[in-house]
Fold Flavin-dependent thymidylate synthase.
Amino acid sequence: MPVTPDQQAEIDALRSQPRPTLRAVSEGAERHLYTAHPVLDHGFVRLVDYMGDDAAICQAARVSYGRGTKSVQNDEGLIRYLMRHWHSTPFEMCEIKLHVKLPVFVARQWIRHRTANVNEYSARYSILDREFYIPDPSQLAAQSTINNQGRGQALTPDESARVLEILKGDAAQTYDHYAEMISEEGPDGAAKQGLARELARMNLPANIYTQWYWKVDLHNLFHFLRLRADAHAQYEIRVYADAICEIVKDWVPAAYGAFADYRLGGAVLSAKGLECLKRMLAGEAVTQETSGMSKGEWREFEGVLG
Amino acid sequence: MPVTPDQQAEIDALRSQPRPTLRAVSEGAERHLYTAHPVLDHGFVRLVDYMGDDAAICQAARVSYGRGTKSVQNDEGLIRYLMRHWHSTPFEMCEIKLHVKLPVFVARQWIRHRTANVNEYSARYSILDREFYIPDPSQLAAQSTINNQGRGQALTPDESARVLEILKGDAAQTYDHYAEMISEEGPDGAAKQGLARELARMNLPANIYTQWYWKVDLHNLFHFLRLRADAHAQYEIRVYADAICEIVKDWVPAAYGAFADYRLGGAVLSAKGLECLKRMLAGEAVTQETSGMSKGEWREFEGVLG
Amino acid sequence: MPVTPDQQAEIDALRSQPRPTLRAVSEGAERHLYTAHPVLDHGFVRLVDYMGDDAAICQAARVSYGRGTKSVQNDEGLIRYLMRHWHSTPFEMCEIKLHVKLPVFVARQWIRHRTANVNEYSARYSILDREFYIPDPSQLAAQSTINNQGRGQALTPDESARVLEILKGDAAQTYDHYAEMISEEGPDGAAKQGLARELARMNLPANIYTQWYWKVDLHNLFHFLRLRADAHAQYEIRVYADAICEIVKDWVPAAYGAFADYRLGGAVLSAKGLECLKRMLAGEAVTQETSGMSKGEWREFEGVLG
Amino acid sequence: MPVTPDQQAEIDALRSQPRPTLRAVSEGAERHLYTAHPVLDHGFVRLVDYMGDDAAICQAARVSYGRGTKSVQNDEGLIRYLMRHWHSTPFEMCEIKLHVKLPVFVARQWIRHRTANVNEYSARYSILDREFYIPDPSQLAAQSTINNQGRGQALTPDESARVLEILKGDAAQTYDHYAEMISEEGPDGAAKQGLARELARMNLPANIYTQWYWKVDLHNLFHFLRLRADAHAQYEIRVYADAICEIVKDWVPAAYGAFADYRLGGAVLSAKGLECLKRMLAGEAVTQETSGMSKGEWREFEGVLG
């Protein structure tokens, strides 16, 4: 259960108190505020704050005093132009703050995106909760034989069962030991010192959940989403990226639309790929052998052309 | 006059339309929104948007679901603790967006603070306005004889008058020539091509005004303010920093208070300085000769101790 | 003349003293070290230092103890794979330091690339040289009628002549006035105070030359080069990007080759563009009207397909 | 044992092949190159590459063509001036690349310093080694009663023994299970699929060792060292910071000296602290009650004054 009744009460309290503001307001974003969107078995993504909307992107691009144009069409056209021509700074003028609960091994991938602000729950200061990511059996798969860093065929039911038995057993045992080490009460009820939290945490495996506040501008968020909402990203981070896409779509619909068209749904062709394409459009039957590409390049080129 | 009637009408329109939001609202910041605070002869600083408030700093530090504590005292104590112990990430959870009009030579210093988002008025796309910074006579001073990169004694009235004559004359002439070069109408009224704006702008001096949207998080803003609201900063950028300080003070009063106490009003002592201080507190009369410091270090050390 | 005899002597001295090192050495980069490659009328690009080579990219990608593979082919294959799949961190493991002399208006575009280290010649501390960028007549053009921020048709000889007359005249006059303002000697030879340099510089136009040390990692350099060695970039910055490309090509030939194929020579297609392409490859005659694209998008799409 | 014979052979090979270069060479850094300095029980820090030396800092600050001054004293004076007045950009002109082996929970603290380049060993692609950090008994301590995020009194021998038993046992068991899950051979010797590495790694605890290449400029490295070579930093990251200090001291002795004096050995006083100090120097006996400081502030103030 991702959110306790107390936490839900705090969320409800925040959602019940609209206040007047003169700032840009996105109705779509307001609907998401504070609500925890579940991800994986115990994780979530919550929108905590946002700055700006589609119009704010245009206002910044125009360095204008007011809202600039009143026309939504004009704004959308400008946003698409900016996205197409890699004008990134207007998109940086929007900012989003998320509260995310996620397994540690996902957090370790996520943090590699450096152009963001992060405040993580401190396991030096606080005690971590007993919550571990245990994959759904449908997600258990063997090492891929094509992609050296991905997963391939689904595991047999027997292997899956054994994996889940291990993950659950080790999570329970390491957490029990963590709790025992930091406890100031011995098994016999007598007082003991209890190991410092900054040390005890080292016994916890990478599927334990952590939490953080993560704040990022829209340009860098799009960069994150392009890499992590992609089929090559590990499933466990992709579902977070997908959940964030749903929020962004409602927050800045025009910018998200341009992103979906020009980045997520688009493709990059190499100079060799472009050359082949021109030959194909001129009627030539190009093969890997005559393409000048390596096998890997050709396979990916075919993938782009469907 | 920093803002035209049309621009003022746009500002007034934005200020007249409060809308409900569920986000954190800072009453102090709302009062500033969109208003142009004049700086120098034609410049200004305008608050265009903000994210977060004092409570949001604490909420992020605690990675909490709601507002966390209801006690303003607790929040202030936490904020002071975070500032004192260089916990910078909670301050990064607040963000501010400013519209600034400033001379180009000030913009060139300002932009060296890289951890910010900037959208500048494009002189490739648009025509720059005929507005130049002409210093107040009280600001005209000779090169400092102590600080190799500052100003010292005030200029004589005669020298001042000559400087102002030059600055005004060259501004007028270079702008006239700029306008002539880009004009698509010749002096005789006949059509001409007009030089591309991206080229014509090169004739304009560094005291012409430009404008930008500048967005930065509170931690990096404090870093900017510590360096630029400082007595060693050039006057023409310091007045912008001072104007921003007034806005920040109203937006996040507790965080600004901690910043003023621990950074702006504080001082850094070297290991040698600390050593001398201990000797002085023990009753010894320390001089530059017995301090182990260079003359420059000693002068600055004496400056700190008043 | 970009480099004085004294400066050339300093460069020659540095080039005459090879010293032993255990670090990775790039023969191609060594050939460029310290030499000033002329750009525009008075500018240059000089390689001052570099870290890493093609093998260092692979060594970092493999987190290896030694050089990793001895095979240059393997390294090149890995580098192409990394570039194709947007693995940017191994390219960040190479670093380059350049000394650049460039007009101020070019410096203002350049500095918008924030992920770099910069040390600029200080006009608060030092006196700027009397060197201005005066375009070659062949570069003088009218505002583009298609691209709102570029240049189009060449100016007529008459208009060109007038532009050059203005640029030269105003450069000379504003510099004379700059020199007069800071001078500590009056026109009559009597002592005067002289205006502080930090103020006097405001009279100088944007085509005056400045200098800086610029240090950047290879990933961010490629990003800079993709945007600035592009046909849409302003000519005056593109020639610097082109000069840097020549250095990088010799420094890390495999990485540069992958960059040239996958980024510089490649193209990005939108989701709509991909859809059209598939229809065209299937034999359909697609037009702008049936493409679902705007006129601007269609024009750019046709541009990609040649 | 931190380095295998094969790895040592690779290191020796690299150390045996000096090559000529025209770049700045630091003799002190050359002595460290490639050698693994042991840290904790299985970790290390190795200098893999460096850019620049003390003279390069001055050369950049002066934006000079050659080495600038020949005088080491002048250079040291300039470096101390730059450090004292927070001129950070010249220090950014030096860069260092380290290969580090470290426990995952240390890596998670370390990575929060975002202004650096990182290439970590990929547990999606490769199999992690069976190496865990097991603290020396002398390092096992209880949660601090003063500092909520540190450690206090040493554990009793009994509690220590139990902690070590847990850490060793869980490390062994979770690694055995990790190996079993990814194995393509069942316990009976029959072929099985083997769980994908990107999933199996989630069973491994935070004291397992990882490795990365870490590249950072000198300014940002000093910032890291100030926070992590500090008494408040967790012991397990502080020993890495200490090891890096030893390398930096030899690489750029003047810059390190200025850093040690002005940052590491110095102290920051608040406005209130400065005020108290002036009263104390004037002979007044100031107490916490009359200081205007909180108890925590006063305790830290007394700490600074010894």
